[in-house]
């Protein structure tokens, strides 16, 4: 599903943020990506949703090397990937409902049935009363839940969530992680970047730890089981 | 469930371009409409002069010998009478009319003044000849015969004059087409510029759309539908402003001399040409926006 081989990343002429990272996430697996702030978790995810090219090494998604993809192929691939951005990236002039429906609209699946899906999902993440609110009028945690709903509405094959619970209280955080769990059960590969270690401990999933630009405790199929 | 107007993913309707672009397009469509109307008027003038003059000749005899210039000159001037007889017997000639000296001096009056005594001036004598345009007489033969009957006379078929006029009308039409083409290109350049600004202003939203799987054409669609409505709005405003101007121009022209000018009212096909202008401006802005977006995005990494 996701395969990195000797991936090096540096921004411009800066230092190497990631040094020779190799990893493999199998289809249907569930991974936590942990590490201190600035360790490079977001950078790693950015390469997974094709917003960033590696400086060196190979990145393959869905069994395809992403280096030679055309813009068209990139767009098609991205439709199978749901992303919760660390900074949410909601469109501020659209309501919560419209933001969540956006991926469906882009992939041409928007319709009466999908409208119902959007409402159900927003209700599930506790935003039944805020469906027509604009993002700037929502709290950080509410915006984060809109972002999560937008990431999962299209039933992606790969879900990449960057600090998806950073602004949520523990009860809501656990509730959302169960949502990801449910998605994982129906086949979605889930990768969650977080530094909330206590949350990670509640779920028995492999942990990939980034430290000093390298993978300290590799997760994935060939990796050792994460400490419980 | 509330079913409100579908909002665009890229909020272009909040940009300042939405206010200025229609105005600029309006000005350009206004200019194009005037140019087109001018071309159509020139075309009509040319057509009228062409058809009016193609069926006529003027035979000009040298000034009459003294004492032969009274009314009924034809009877008293054997050369004039001979030419008239000759013309009337020529196949292809429909009518002949000897212009009386009164008429000639009336024609000259604006230049020479009323006080002129016609007798003081040796005026040439003119015969207006109507010919059958389908079977015109042989001009070379006719010229030779008229010269033999009245030495020094001239048979003028107006072709030189007409050719110059037609050249002029043609030049006006070409100029109008050039003006319309330039106006449309200026509009296109403007829209390309405004579209680039829009792409820069909304790069965050556009990047997000790309990240969740939007094709470039999805983004282009947002820009092009926005540009279409701005271009159409501007075009309609421009045309609406051009109509009173055209009406004013027409009434001023008609006051000059109704005999010289053709009926300037627009015919249906000319109306549709003018109405096509806002449509053209809308299409030009739409396609320019689309092409600009696609080309700009394709150059991104
Ligand atoms: N666009 C960028 N240009 C230059 N440097 C960057 C850029 N993005 C990130 N960095 C640098 O890369 C390093 C890793 O950043 P990254 O955002 O991947 O960390 P992170 O693990 O997600 O941190 P956090 O937990 O705080 O989100 C940081 O030192 C940061 O300064
Ligand atoms: Mg981060």
Q: What does this protein look like?
A:
The complex is a heterodimer of chains A (228) and B (301). Helices cover 33% and strands 24% of the residues of chain A. Chain A is an alpha/beta fold and 228 residues long. Chain A has a domain at 90-155. In chain A, helix 3 packs across helix 4 and helix 3 (96-106) packs parallel to helix 5 (140-152). Chain A is globular and about 45 Å long. Chain B is of the alpha+beta class. Chain B folds into 2 domains: 12-51 and 162-299, no CATH class; 63-152, Alpha-Beta Plaits. Chain B contains 9 helices and 4 strands. Chain B has helices at residues 17-54, 73-76, 78-89, 101-112, 139-149, 159-201, 203-211, 216-256, 268-298, and strands spanning 56-61, 93-98, 125-131, 154-156. The chains are: A alpha/beta (228), B alpha+beta (301). Chain A binds chain B through residues 49, 51, 53, 71-72, 75-76, 78-79, 81, 83, 85, 89, 91, 93-94, 98, 102-103, 105-107, 115, 119, 132, 150, and chain B through 1-2, 7, 9, 11, 14, 204-205, 208-216, 218, 297-298, 301. The structure holds adenosine-5'-triphosphate and magnesium ion. Adenosine-5'-triphosphate is lined by residues 11, 14, 17, 35, 37-43, 86, 195 of chain A.
Describe the sheet with the most strands of chain B.
4 strands, antiparallel
Measure the end-to-end span of chain A. Answer: 25 Å
Q: Terminal Cα separation of chain B, in Å?
A: 41 Å
Give the mean pLDDT of chain A. Answer: 90
Write down how many β-strands of chain A occur, each being a DSSP E stretch of 2 or more residues.
10
**Interface with most residues:** A-B, 26 and 21 residues
Main β-sheet description of chain A: 6 strands, mixed
Give helix and strand order of chain B, one letter per element, not per position. Answer: HEHHEHEHEHHHH
- Tally of contiguous helical segments of chain A: 7
Backbone CA Rg of chain B: 32 Å
Helix/strand/pairing category of chain B: alpha+beta
| Overall form of chain A | globular
